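User:
Note these tokens:
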Amino acid sequence: MTSSVTDPRAARRELLRRRRQQAGSAPAAVESPGKTHDSTNVVSAGLGVAERRMWRIHRLDTASVSHTITLVLSCRGVTAEQLVEGVEATVRGAEVLGSVIVDDDRNNDDNAAAGTPRRVPREASGQWIVPGTRWGLGVSGPGTVAGAGTVAGASATESDGGTAAEVAAHLARTPFDLTAELPIRAWVDGSTLVLSVHHLAVDDTSWPLLLGAILAGRWPGPQPDTPAGPALAAGPSGAADPAGAAGLVAEASPERVARAVEHARRTWAAEGVRYPLTGQLPDSTPEDSWLAPVDEAPGAQLRRDLDPTDLAAFAAFAPTVGGTPNAALVALCAVSTAVLTGADDLVIVVPADNRRPGQSPDRVGYCGNIIPIRFTFDPAGSTEQAMRDAVAAIYAAMEFTDVDFGPILTALRSSGGRFPVTEVMASVRPSPMRHIETPPGVDVNYRSVSSGIAPYPVTLAIELAGPNRAHLEVDYQHGTGDAVAERAADVVSDLLHRIPTDGQQPLSSLIDALTHPRFRQ
């Protein structure tokens, strides 16, 4: 066993603990109540509720790259000049991309009240490295000057100027200084575009607007107030009241928060919840447990395409257990985790969209929420019943998707509780290119690039590219998830195939069927 003196993760946790104590603030994932107008219950902070939660996490560890999203888009029918024009127009048009964060605790140049982080527009420009062929924004290569592509006074990220794949790998592992540079870096090499964006500026519901504008080569203009987006396709989100401008978003009422906290204490925050991968109870102190949101580790990702025929059969099966196809896919991840770990009582965290009216993607970048869900399974019961129970648990938890994770954590911590068990995440999300209408004659292929950091020991992410087209990404931490990553991909693929036809079989029989050597650790 590695001693705490030489364990880099232990050293990092100690550093973050000291930073938090020096700041004298709440833990990074806890959302302190925003300033509100009594008559409207509207938050007057510059960032949205979820954005402020992510900003606190970022401030606690600004060297982290776990929230850096990097894509490589290989385009046909588009020139380098057109891609550059599209990037520049989108950065000018989207407030979330063309601004830095001013935090009055650190930078009081606008004399605003302390504790109101907000976006402030900043001019930035890219530079042609090879005229007509190679261009960078926020990244420099051979022949560029320091600072090209960043706001005044900030240095550009150095790149070796190699292939787009090499630049993408470099950018994916380079942290953002959100107070000094834009939350986007771009690299154009011929018809290939590398985009690296901080999660504070983008989420699953804003990709269509931003990528669509880049590929169209123009900004579509001011965006109308955006209706509330669906929860992570697992069920309808709670009602949200409209607000007039970005950052002025109605928070859940105290009554809604209290109900969400009560649900948490009955389910995922109850005593006795074990880590599914090890079967162990938490052994840290309640206070130390609140470092969990930043307890990331080096990791890797593997990808597995899912069979289109199996996806179609599974989508047809979903209504028989009371769910949408996406809800059933989340349930599939839960059942897969039970098969992988042997746990019949486990908690999985699921990201969900919580975009509200008034939060258009050009003004509010991140609207994500975290929904922990507790699943219990009866191995003697049928597989269909296990899926039905899992879907019911998902919908029960999604009832509170309109209540931000932060206030729930605040209530739990203030009563002496611990941070919930968050060892496995399950995600069902659209592809960044889904629902984007490309111009005539333009064809785009994309791939995501891992940052080399995994925030959870294991993440099962199913990315939907279109009807009956999807792939599975298994992100895992080295030293924790390595042993189950390949097996997880096999189990998810196999269960996707088996569940629609073996639903009446006992869950234990299905688990026994997965004792084939390829599933053994």
